[in-house]
Amino acid sequence: MAAIPGVMRAAVLADPGRISVRELPVPEPGPEDVLVRVHRASLCGTDLKIRSRAFFPDGGPPPGTFVPGHEYAGRVVAVGSTVDEFRIGDRVVTEAHRGCMRCANCLSGSYTACLNSGRREKGHRTQGMTVNGGFADYALNHVSTLHRLPDHLSFDAGVVLTTVGTVMHAFDVLGSLLVGARVAILGPGPIGLLATQVAKELGAELVALVGTRESRLKLGRALGAGLALNTHDDDAVALIREATAGEGADVVLECSGAAPAVDEALRMTRRGGTIVLVGFFGESVTTDLNHAVMNDITLRTVRGEGAGSLARAVSLAARGRLDTEILVTHHFPLEEVSEAFDTYAERRGDAIKVMLDITDSEI
Fold first, then answer.
1. Region 295-307: what's the mean pLDDT?
2. Which of 4, 41, 62, 122 has the least CB density, counted as fewest CB within 10 Å?
3. Do residues 208 and 184 touch, judged by C-beta distance below 8 A?
4. What is this structure's pTM?
5. How many whole angstroms separate alpha carbon 169 and alpha carbon 164?
6. If we measure between CA atoms, which residue out of 270, 263, 271, 275 comes closest to residue 300?
7. Helices 214-222 and 190-201, packing angle to 10 deg
8. What does the pLDDT look like over 153-201, one tens digit per residue?
9. Which of 146, 183, 151, 182 lies closest to 165 in space, CA to CA?
10. Around 294, how many Cα atoms within 13 Å sit in the side-chain half-sphere?
11. Residues in a beta bridge with 93
12. Is the CB of residue 339 less than 8 Å from the CB of residue 143?
């Protein structure tokens, strides 16, 4: 293992809408920390909000100081004095959220809803959101946020498992097995396409994927969607009800973040069914909540990959039950991070998962 330098390359927030690469000091691990040499990192919709600074209610940190990136994988290069869970050289994938582990929510397992969110002095961290993340040569993680990446899985495949963790968490909140359930998924983005795979693996009887981009729907069919419906041409509500003997889907995952999709989700859910809101909305949502009340429809929400869901995602992938690498469409070196952001934001070349190659090898 090469010696750890004193400085590193890092993509940092500049003025709103801009991100640039500069040198920063390599962070030093505290007693419970692990220093990771980042090999791959990927972009998601939250990163676009962070770049624009819309994510930060107070405008965010000063330009040139903050490193985004919450989806990344790499190798352990240093550990804190109390860390014996990992060894130098271990391949790892990271979980974004670390709760304070002292508030009522964290103690009950709901650490993505930590009551001390954003308060580093109380132990809370969210990689790339409240503390520096993985768009850099090195990233510092609390030991509890890392999971070993099996040797036969590439770093590309491993990075996407963070998103699978969000999907697993969305199914967690149902409180019941998915075996035999009829599932509708709105939005064939990375989360929706991964949810299609996971729903099939968890035993769903029917998986319907709803969207507007035919290329994404075609991929969804290949990944197990029994119905792939383009709302430009299809009445998704009518077709899903037809496929379920008029009852509607037992479970609907809203992954698009499109405000009108919530009403669509309500109308395709059976009486007594459940909707899980997974996507982040860019605007206020107006919906017919009377329909939910009159039909006893439960609305749930999730944020990120909580409740140990990333560990289960790694286990599923390790057994060959998930294809995450198929979603990786673009690669950019760290120096081209601005181009990577623009490619993802504008969906150039039908971009799905855009990867930053921080280190140019799997070694």
1. 92
2. 62
3. yes
4. 0.95
5. 9
6. 275
7. 20
8. 999 999 999 999 999 999 999 988 899 999 999 999 999 999 999 999 9
9. 146
10. 6
11. 73, 147
12. no
